[in-house]
Amino acid sequence: MTASQIYEVFLKADGKSEFRHVGALGAADNEMALLLARECYCRRAEGEQIWVVRRDDISSADSSETAPNRNKSHRHNDGKLVAEHRRQLREGS
Amino acid sequence: MTLTSIDDGAREYLLALADDEHMMGSHLAWWIGIAPFLEEDLSLCSIAQDELGHAIAVYELLVDDVDHLALRRQPSEYRSCSFVETALPQWEDTLIRHWLYDVGEQIRWNALVDSSVRELSSIAQRALAEESFHRSHSTLLLRRSLSGSEEARQRLVSSMESLLPQSMTMWSPVAGEVDALAGGVTSLSSGDAETAYSEAVQADLNEWGISLNWAPTSAPHNDRVARVEGFDEFHASLNLVLDLDPDTEW
User: Fold this and answer.
1) Which of B28, B31, B39, B150 to probe the A interface (max A CBs under 10 A)?
2) Global pTM?
3) Which of A54, B132, B148, B191 could, after both became Cys, cross-link B152 (CB 3.0–4.6 A)?
4) pLDDT of residue A1
């Protein structure tokens, strides 16, 4: 038997909800992974659809690659600055 | 809901099916926490729950007090076959019995889909939906395991050689079968079921490239009234907690 590989498991509930990661499991192949995912993560019908993805097939970026995007408060615009600016313009006119 | 419309023969027939499910479910549940790997632990226990659920559904057609029927009978009053009564502490034996039993179970439930007992027909339809998963589980796992190391394959094949002849006791005719057939409760005699079973098992063996020196032998006729060695201990283990306080309301 192929050595057990780690799979990440995603479930999608009904409706418009997205697939969400729910955990991982070990399985010999894709078919077994789907079968075991059904029992390990969906035995109480927590999802309507299942994805399993071999962990080795996932491309990942660690914190050193995401670090440059820290402290960029201007990308967290909540609209307050713009609202304040418009209020001042209104009151000044 | 307890049925009053079925005769004693059909009751005996259904009791044999429910007792087989009960024994299988209970033996599979024994692996909780100790199956070889966690994913399989969960899957097997899920299947055990399904089998116990099937047993309960049929017991409920027969009596009001399901717990009493399931657990408090004398060993001689059970109608399970010896194949499902035996304790199998080796994982490969459990896997092989799981495969063989579910091949047979699918045939048995299929024969009840058009039952004259409407409630039984609906239980059969639900059971079959679950059985398709049980079959996938056992055959996928077996196929993968058989293609593993030579030792794994040898152990599995050796287990098949030992358990396959025993599995024929599933088709030991039960008293009442004639009545169950005549009343349309089931549509398949144990003889015809045995033939269908042998063909289905052989088809799986062919797919896996396994050649066994195995010829289907007729099931013994008195198997369901005798209990296997060790049954009393197993029965006692099922009653262990209940015996602590028999009057408890669960």
Assistant:
1) B39
2) 0.88
3) B148
4) 43
